[in-house]
Amino acid sequence: MKKTGYYIVDEEILPDIFKKVVEAKILLKRGRVKTVKEAVNKAGLSRSAFYKYKDHIQPLFDTKMIKIITIALLLQHTPGILSKVLTTIAQANGNILTINQNIPIHNQANVTISIETTGLNTSINDLINELSEMEGVEKIEIIAEE
């Protein structure tokens, strides 16, 4: 069978079976279950469907594929916000490689952080979402990935 290529598909239109396969893979990867049987039961799919698709679907930001990400943040100029961001990254087992912070202008500071992701205990998407929901984080985006 000839491969035709790869596609990026919005999760909203992705069939539920693929989402469930990814959920089961994440449960196994994070050690929340010990067997495939437990993972598929929790995710609500059959073992045959899991084995059929498991090697063909993965999240866009799979930490096995991406070793380093660089994020740009716009932070309020309030004491302790950068510290909270760095603590959140550390708690996710992200290894901070570089931090660049500009002088605050109009009570906001631009910060760029490069993070090694190989040891993350969460997905990159979950980490970015957690950071974006923090009080004082005005904007966050991934600007580079390796």
Oligomer: single chain
Q: In total, how many domains does the architecture comprise?
A: 2
The total count of helices amounts to 5
Q: What class do helices, strands and sheet pairing give? A: alpha+beta
Looking at CATH, the homologous superfamily of the largest domain is ACT domain
Would you count the extended β strands for me? Answer: 4
CATH architectural grouping of the largest domain: 2-Layer Sandwich
Question: What is the element layout, followed by pairings?
Answer:
Blueprint lengths: L15 H14 L6 H8 L3 H7 L14 E9 L4 H11 L3 E7 L6 E9 L7 H9 L4 E9 L1
Helix pairs in contact: 1-2
Task: Summarize the structure in short.
The chain has 146 residues and is of the alpha+beta class. The protein is built from five helices and four strands, in the order αααβαββαβ.
Task: List key phrases describing it.
elongated, Alpha-Beta Plaits, 4-stranded antiparallel sheet, alpha+beta, 2 domains, 146 residues
Description:
The chain is an alpha+beta fold. The chain has 2 domains: 11-53, no CATH class; 68-145, ACT domain (Alpha-Beta Plaits, 2-Layer Sandwich). The chain has helices at 16-29, 36-43, 47-53, 81-91, 124-132; strands at residues 68-76, 95-101, 108-116, 137-145. A 4-stranded antiparallel β-sheet has the order 2-3-1-4, with helices on one face. A hairpin with a 6-residue loop joins β2 (95-101) and β3 (108-116). α1 (16-29) crosses α2 (36-43). The longest helix is centred in the first third of the chain and has 14 residues, at 16-29.
